[in-house]
Amino acid sequence: MKLKTLSLIAGAIALTLTATSFAVQAGTASSSPLLLAQTQTPKKERKGPWQSLGLTDAQKAQIQQIQRDSRTQIEAVFTPEQKAKIKAAMEARRAQRQAGERPQRGQGDRKNFFADLNLSQTQKDQIRQIRESSKKQMEAVLTPEQQAKLKQFHENARQRHQQRQQSNP
């Protein structure tokens, strides 16, 4: 049960971070460590469903605002110690990139990272609620066609994940 909860939280955070990197970044600067990490992702490395949706500038702006709001809400859930761990991990990853090394992105690494944060059940529940709310808000910005494309992308990703799980017992 605990592993399932951590996986859900890790997946939700990964989804939001991934979605953020695909939306066009606003020209505003922020001291938020999570926002700073996302703004440093080169455009040529960005992949995912958001590019293929054909978002309008208005949709991009709305999605960016939803993501900023949810990021701020989630950051408020973390304790100062947890924030320090997150910042240290992001700085280590940034140093790897600057040294020309490719950061490790395995699922196990993410699970261990979130386990190291020692989130309380209340924190996990709050983060899950924030993620679900922001997901619904972002989906509401999309047209029915865009929603269908996004749903198909997620279904394909789920199938690929299941296939990898079956081939790596």
Report on the architecture of this protein.
Residues 1-26 form the signal peptide. Residues 33-53, 85-169 are annotated as: Disordered. Residues 85-113, 125-138 have a biased composition (Basic and acidic residues). InterPro entries: Cpx_auxiliary_protein (IPR052211). The chain has eight helices and no strands. The longest helix has 24 residues, at 144-167. The chain has a domain at 2-25 and 50-143. Helix 1 (2-22) packs across helix 6 (107-116). The protein is globular. It has 169 residues and is an all-alpha fold.
Give helix % range.
over 70%
Helix-strand topology string? HHHHHHHH
Average pLDDT level: 76
What is the 3D shape?
globular
Beta-strand residue percentage: under 5%
Number of helices: 8
**Would you identify the regions where 5 or more consecutive residues have pLDDT less than 50?**
19-45
Class by alpha and beta content? mainly alpha
Report the major sheet: none
Strand segment count: 0
Rg over CA atoms, rounded to whole Å, is: 16 Å
Between the first and last Cα atoms, what is the distance in angstroms?
20 Å
How does the SSE layout of this entry go?
Blueprint: H1 2-22, H2 33-39, H3 49-52, H4 57-77, H5 80-98, H6 107-116, H7 121-141, H8 144-167
Helix pairs in contact: 1-6, 1-7, 4-7
Can you describe this structure in just a few lines?
Residues 33-53, 85-169 are annotated as: Disordered. This protein has helices at residues 2-22, 33-39, 49-52, 57-77, 80-98, 107-116, 121-141, 144-167.
